[in-house]
Design brief:
The chain is an alpha/beta fold and 627 residues long. 63% of the residues lie in helices and 9% in strands. The radius of gyration is 36 Å and the shape is elongated.
Length: 627
Amino acid sequence: MADEPPGTNEESLELGEVAASDWHVHDDKMAEVGFLVIARRLPSLVAQAMSIAWRASPRDTAATVTLNLLGGVFTAFGLLATTGVLTALFSEGPTPDRVRAAVPSLIMVATAAGLRTAMQAGAGWAQARLDPQVTRQIEERLYGLTSRVELVAFDDPDFHDALQRARLRGVAMADAVVATAIDVVTAAVGIAAVAGVLGVLHPVLLPLLLLAVVPDAWAAVRSARMRYTTMYSLIPVMRRKWIIAELLADRDPAAEVRSFTMRGFLLRMYDAVARAEQKVMLNLAKRQMWARVVGEALGGIGSGLVYVALGLLLALAAIPLAVAGTAVLAIRQGQSSLANLMYATNRLYEEGLYFTDFLEFCADAETRLAGPRPVEAPRTFARISVSDATFTYPGADAPALRGVSVEIKHGEVIAFVGENGSGKTTLAKILSGLYEPDSGTVTWDEIDLRDVDPETLRLRTAVIAQDHTRWPLTAAYNITMGTGKGEPALHAAAAVAGADEVIAELPHGYKTLLDRRFKDGHELSGGQWQRIAVARGFHRDAALLICDEPTAALDARAEHALFERIRSHSDGRTVLLITHRLASVRYADRIYVLDHGKITEQGDHDTLMSLDGLYADLYSLQASAYR
């Protein structure tokens, strides 16, 4: 089976449907609109892009626009100077005399060409400077908002989807929107320059410009629309092919691809999808070829009519021969500028749709920022109280917490226990100010957390989480998180957590990068990462230490040692312990038992065992496994 040819098909392949990715979320809109719809929205898109560019760098924006405008002026000047050259060359008399007469105009043409080239080079340089400045400004705005919005926003599916679209393509489109808007302006300036020249030479020449460029315009729009609608129809196919390719080439599934001898099966699937895509693309190539043939044929007819019209104008002595020659050059220039304009316009509209996602996300994120809160969190506390707190996650049908009340006194070790989904972690996040309850209050020494600056509150709390972040930073930064308390505090926290033993084995000690994607990077085991996370929590030396399943990745010996360290480290500190290992909470001052978002029992270990309720049932169930 491992060498099974891709064409073998023992069973019908069910490929399924794959939703469009965020990179194609607006393709349906693009497939439905016509060029006139795009053109009507063009002024607002250009204005929007120029506004962004101006905020990023007024100097480079002004330079880019001004130099492009001057380039158009020198284009027009060069075309008009060409008339003088042709007039001198087509006049009567000896050839040397005609050439000498044309020299001044030739100098003007050469000067205009040189200045136009200089203006275009300068505009390109200014635009190249502008692009990274736009990108930096947009990224700083996005990540400044995402790092400040309330944490509950990340539990809102709509917010998360909008964030993904803003990140994946909205930010990427920012500099492209600006660059394409400048391309639109540049092409429009080029057309205006040509139209101005033809209007100066003779008013009747302006309709000839339209006659020459409309067929090419139709062919370009038709071909682009064909490609766009085809690519839109292929989105599920291309995404499916990408998914299969990831299975064949990615590291994570590589072992199972071999273990289950899936190579032949996956290659059959890939071949089926690739053949379907190939068939559609070949058909597209055929249709585009016919569109180009028709466009070029109509363009040839249009050009022929232009030359006929110019011939009639010459025969009627309406224009001199030199003007006719200049008109031909101007019309050619106009055709090129119009092609650039249509391409840039179509692209700007598409990019504008995705960039609008970024703007809409930022507007929504700003509504999710906490308002000004002047009260600073106390450095310590005598008591933390939660009174009748209720909390529901965005989009959830039922509350995660229902009328919960708890009390934590300074220096106590408090435990939250309960089955999965009972609300333990949610309640801990409310206690630390990461979530705000929908109703009820949370106070630190009678100070309502709704009035407290969240940044100062987070400096007073430390969290050791089960799903801790494995930061792609050095071992030292993974513990200090950039707080800069000095090496003694770093080494003390590592020693209390047992992370010093892990770091001693690293090739560069505390300076070792903990990520294999970097050169000389090192990867830790789950248990080793857990010790680093514990050291991170201890290093903060906060008034409230929250330990949420801190031993999930540790073996029995390491788990026992860690709980002993937590007990010794908690001397004079307040510890909130969340765990399923009930043997570890026997020595807690008070245990709260949660069930479906409610506190059903509370007390110390002996009290709860005497109640013979949920705690006693869970404790006895775990203990029986060791008998």
